[in-house]
Amino acid sequence: MSRIVYLNGAFIPEEEASISIFDRGFLFADAVYEVTSVLDGKLVDFDGHMARLERSLGEVGMPMPMDREAWLALHRELVVKNGLEEGCVYLQVSRGVADRNFLFPENVSQTVVAFTQLKNLAGEKKGLRVVSIPDIRWRRRDIKTVQLLAASMSKTGAKKQGKDDVWMVEDGFVTEGSSSNTYIVTSEGAIVTRQLSSSILPGITRAAVLKLAEERGFVIEERPFTLDEAKAAQEAFVTSATSFVLPVVEIDGTELSGGVPGPTARRLNEIYIEEGRRNAI
Length: 281
Ligand code: PDD
Fold this sequence. Notes:
Blueprint: E1 4-7, E2 10-13, H1 24-28, E3 31-39, E4 42-43, H2 46-59, H3 68-81, E5 87-94, E6 111-118, E7 128-134, H4 149-160, E8 165-170, E9 173-177, E10 180-185, E11 191-193, H5 204-215, E12 220-222, H6 227-231, E13 235-240, E14 244-251, E15 254-255, H7 263-279
Parallel strand pairs: 7-8, 7-14, 11-12
Antiparallel strand pairs: 1-2, 1-6, 3-4, 3-5, 5-6, 8-9, 9-10, 10-11, 10-13, 13-14, 14-15
Helix pairs in contact: 5-7
Bound molecules: N-(5'-phosphopyridoxyl)-D-alanine.
């Protein structure tokens, strides 16, 4: 079934949605995006995603093309028009259309695109097998730009090796998965995750999971960790809007938590889904 997508003010069938070859999102990856998950037809962590969108836009010198209420109405209308119960809404804002020039154009209107994707988010999770790879991305990973070729190449490379994803490493420390934040659980049960900086994306799921974990008495250490520390850890997991809390059961051939999802990751996933359902709008 064809989806109804959003393009610059109109809700139209996906086959009818087209944009200019001069769109700067296409030519320069001059665009930022958000992915918001949907449970029971409602938006999870919506305000967090819109706050990060505003920040990303600001960092690349673009205004917010609409306010929170308009974004909410747009997201809700897409969800309803597509009958989406569980999945996500992808939203992208590019600087707009102008003849190819490295300088930012002036007085162009931004291109706003949004569409839904059907996904099983709350189902049983198998656990990821990951391989490490040098982090070759640019140094402003805190901005959620559509410049995703390095991540896409990395994940495709992992698949070719029969694995599920990568963990990227820089200066000896783990940065991120191809599209997720990374965590380990120490033998004392502490949850370790890299602190926020321009080296990683400030995950919205990360913020929510850390808050929920803290409220439930988990010890949290925000600091970098090495691959060796990860391989020797009790458990490992990743978070993102499209995976929630997803266990990692193997790193570079070393099995973790006996090769099956660990109890901390499973518990955090349950809590996140429970709270997500409760707070979704
Ligand atoms: N990506 N780090 C990177 C590099 C990411 O691309 C993502 C999410 C995250 C997790 O952020 P959040 O919890 O806000 O989803 C961390 C989305 C899901 C994507 O590109 O599809």
